[in-house]
Amino acid sequence: MAVVTLGKSHTGDSTPVKLLGIEFAGTLRGGKKRSRFAGWTGKAGGGVGCLAKLDRWSDDKTRVTTTPVVRNKSGRGEVDVTRQREKDRIRERKMAEAPKIELFVKASVDAESVGNCPFCQRLFMILWLKGVKFTITTVDMKRTPEALKALAPGSQPPFLICDGEVKTDNNKIEEFLEETLAPPEYPKLCCRYKESNGAGEDIFLKFSAYIKNPDPGKNDALENKFLATLVKLNMNLETPLPHELQQNPNANESTRLYLDGDSLTLADCNLLPKIHIVKVVCKKYRDFAIPKALKGLTRYLENAYKQDVFRYTCPNDSEILFAYKSVAKYLNK
Predict the structure, then answer these.
(1) pLDDT digit string (tens) for 309-332?
(2) Mind listing the domains of the chain with CATH numbers?
(3) Is the C-alpha dihedral spanning 155, 161, 316, 274 positive or negative?
(4) E strands within the chain?
(5) Which residues lie closer than 8 Å to 6 by C-beta, 6 or more apart?
């Protein structure tokens, strides 16, 4: 069960925050209670309301749970009700013992949702996959209150507070979460195969060189170098993993869903936010799309976008394009 407490946007006012399909008006920790299922800002079709339950608990904080509501339907015996109550008590006890985690992420330009930051999205996805209760707070760095500056002086989002301890290094936060939120209470997210951790690691570097170049004479060479990194990732995704070969020694092509198998891992949380940025920016400035001929990569992305943990943590395309407005260049005519 993924439970999220939505914190107030640190803008110095009561700007509504839109996350996980809910728009909260006014101060979110106490205060106004008006809310509606709205979906992500700018997302066609809106809402994940059908997937969520909106609760206000005894501490007056609003939380969203992606676990369906269990009700005692007519015809169910008293034994079922008793069992459910016992499960509820166990769940409440576990939640009371869970660490108190708050993740601070970059706010969007309008301070209404999350901004463009692959590192923020990476940690957001990890916490969601862990299924731990956590608070997520958007930070508008243009109007950061003094209290927040004192909390993590000199730091840019993302940073995390766990049981009062502030952590600011992205890689160390990931390591900390994997060690602290460990089995049997929380799922293990590290990769089975070390090669999965480095998959696609050179894409962003070649993408940056490709998209920053305005000279048409250099474009083809830079595009080919960038495309070569996508081909390399595609080969990785099409190559059967050892456990696939154990199941089928004659397998010529992998059928796995993600980098390390059929479950999302830390490697996916690191790579997918970057690939999403690559897709959006390349389409805008080069009219370039990932070739369908790269079947492994195409399959990987199709499976990833089916997952709420990825789809609903992505910033709006407009946020990504705004961030690259002064970086990406159209080719000179």
Answers:
(1) 999 999 999 999 999 999 999 999
(2) 3-68+92-180 (3.40.30.10), 194-323 (1.20.1050.10)
(3) positive
(4) 3-6, 17-19, 22-24, 35-37, 53-56, 62-65, 101-106, 134-139, 159-162, 165-167
(5) 17, 19, 20, 22, 24, 28, 62, 63, 64, 135, 136
The two tokens of residue 109 are 């330009």
- The number of residues in the chain equals 333
pTM comes to: 0.75
Distance CA(237)–CA(8), nearest Å, equals 40
Mean pLDDT for the stretch of residues 145-168: 83
Return the half-sphere exposure (C-beta side, CA atoms, 13 A cut-off) of residue 279.
17
pLDDT at 218 over 90: yes
- Yes or no: say if 330 and 213 are a contact pair by the CB < 8 Å rule: no
Give the count of beta carbons closer than 10 Å to the beta carbon of residue 263: 15
Per the DSSP assignment, residues forming a β-bridge with 22 are 19, 37
Instruction: List, for residues 114-137, the tens digit of each pLDDT value.
Output: 999 999 999 999 999 999 999 998
Residue 107 dihedral angles phi and psi, to the nearest 5°: -85, 160
pLDDT surpassing 60 at residue 292: yes
- How far, in Å, CA of 115 to CA of 95, rounded? 29
